[in-house]
Specification:
The chain is α/β, with parallel strands linked by helices. The chain contains 16 helices and 17 strands.
């Protein structure tokens, strides 16, 4: 157990939404670093000490996609008037806020750090609107946005996947959902109903959250019904099942040791203790995973986080599961042995499709809301997760204000290393030929809701995996969209050069 005075406690949280029509009459584009600073100032006020910003020893900032900075933490520190001795901008990924908290908590437990500021923001709404209206943004010079952000990242997909048009989350996550449906043995209509009811639980929370970008209630029927406003993106996901990043939102947390909280006079009822956490990675892309319908890394961090926090899942009152797409919530529920109808609910925030998905910073909002709900007596133990890339990178943090739970915890986080057989997928074949069976698939659509192409992940008779396009005919589209594509048998032929492989059912 760590020294009680060196346990990490979250003492202040702050959130900002900058949506015209809700937060202001006119559009007022504020750059990400200023939104982060505003969230930190709110966090300091929430802690009961607006001057707390001067105490920062560490400033860690989640990188936005809308705007790039040469020194993001330094710029945020400048805006709030802080002079940290340590700054950090971690690599991009939706697990970033949780991983940042986990790492800071370990530093505090080791006596290396006393006061840390964590913040993040996204301003994709303002960036896109400015481009469409030809408006020059008066923001910190040099922001190249997404292109510069992506140069710091490992490619989302491998060469075989890129060759077949799998380039971004909306292409890849549907593959997991179709695999999950087949594993559950549900028909396509039954599974769409199942998933939409899960996502409706997120919408119910988003409506009550004053920082949600989409406070309008959405029923399960609305979420699953395809229409002009809820068009298909990648089957089986219509738009309302996809993370929406076109938002301007920020969130921040102030974390410190108990010793610092005592010194600075932070009230006991403001403190929520970090009990423990863990992080781990699955195979990098869908093609490199062992299984398209589960997450060994999520299971690993579930075990490790419970061990460090000294809790069981039955002890947890409040969950906030990362939810860029429904499949990752299903992975989390499976890893923890929970059902979609668990009375505790899957979110304190509202989800990336309904609260809004501020790039890599959504989980910071999850932390803020969980801390607030613990303080207000809605539960004693909270479990918050983050997730990055193609459901690759996972992190969890467990929080509480219960003295018994705090005494039983280690207040540490671990980095879990999985045995190779748990996360390394089968050998890939670039140019397959002969018999093949569909392991999972997706269908991509145009803006008129017409299917454009199908992408199939295949297993060959020897167990190796490949990727192909389906033959572009109405019969195959009908089978994939209305009957079932997983398990479909056929033949695959290799594409010439950079052309895609092609699968035809028998």
């Amino acid at each position: 157990m760590s020294n009680a005075k060196q346990r990490a406690v979250i003492v202040g949280v702050g959130q900002v939404r900058n949506r015209p029509g809700l937060d202001s009459k006119e559009w007022n584009p504020i750059e990400p670093a200023k939104l982060m600073a505003s969230a930190l100032e709110r966090a300091a006020a929430d802690a009961g000490n607006p001057k707390l910003v001067r105490e920062a020893e560490f400033v860690g900032c989640i990188p936005p996609m809308a705007w790039s900075y040469d020194d993001l933490p330094g710029r945020v520190a400048e805006f709030v008037g802080a002079s940290p001795r340590e700054k950090l901008e971690p690599p991009g990924g939706g697990e970033g806020p949780i991983l940042l908290l986990d790492d800071v908590a370990n530093k505090i437990a080791d006596g290396e750090l006393d006061v840390a500021f964590l913040a993040g923001a996204e301003c994709v709404y303002s960036r896109r609107r400015a481009r469409s209206e030809g408006r020059k943004l008066d923001w910190t010079p040099g922001g190249d946005g997404l292109p510069r952000f992506m140069t710091k990242m490992k490619p989302f997909a491998n060469a075989l996947e890129l060759r077949h048009g799998i380039r971004q989350p909306v292409d890849m996550y549907p593959l997991y959902e179709n695999a999950l449906r087949a594993q559950a043995g549900r028909s396509i209509p039954a599974h769409q109903k199942f998933v939409s009811e899960l996502m409706a639980r997120y919408s119910e929370v988003a409506v009550t959250n004053p920082y949600s970008w989409f406070p309008e209630p959405r029923s399960a029927e609305e979420i699953r019904t395809v229409s002009a406003k809820n068009r298909w993106i990648g089957f089986p996901y219509p738009k309302l099942m996809n993370a929406i990043m076109e938002v301007d939102q920020a969130a921040a947390a102030i974390v410190m040791s108990e010793r610092a909280a005592d010194r600075l006079g932070i009230a006991a009822d403001k403190r929520v203790t970090f009990l423990g956490g863990a992080s781990a990675n699955d195979g990098w892309s869908a093609a490199e995973r062992v299984d398209l319908a589960s997450s060994p890394a999520m299971r690993a961090i579930a075990r490790a986080a419970q061990s460090h926090a000294g809790v069981s899942i039955a002890d947890v009152d409040l969950f906030d599961f990362y939810s860029c797409f429904p499949c990752v919530v299903e992975f989390a529920l499976d890893a923890l042995g929970l059902s979609t109808t668990d009375r505790r609910g899957p979110t304190q925030t509202g989800g990336l499709a309904h609260h809004g998905g501020p790039g890599n910073n959504y989980a910071m909002h999850g932390l803020c809301n969980t801390v607030t709900h613990i303080r207000h007596g809605k539960g004693k133990v909270g479990w918050v997760t983050g997730l990055g890339m193609s459901a690759t990178k996972h992190a969890a943090a467990v929080l509480s204000n219960d003295p018994e739970r705090i005494a039983a915890s280690s207040s540490r986080a671990s980095r879990e290393s999985l045995p190779p057989e748990q996360f390394e997928g089968p050998q890939l074949v670039d140019s397959p030929s002969g018999a093949a069976q569909v392991e999972s698939y997706t269908v991509m659509f145009d803006r008129e809701n017409q299917p454009e192409r199908s992408v199939l992940y295949l297993r060959l008779p020897d167990g190796r995996r490949s990727v192909a396009h389906g033959v572009p005919n109405a019969a195959l589209f009908r089978t994939l969209l209305e009957v079932e594509g997983v398990g479909l048998r056929g033949t695959v032929s290799a594409g010439a050069g950079e052309s895609p492989n092609v699968f035809a059912p028998v």
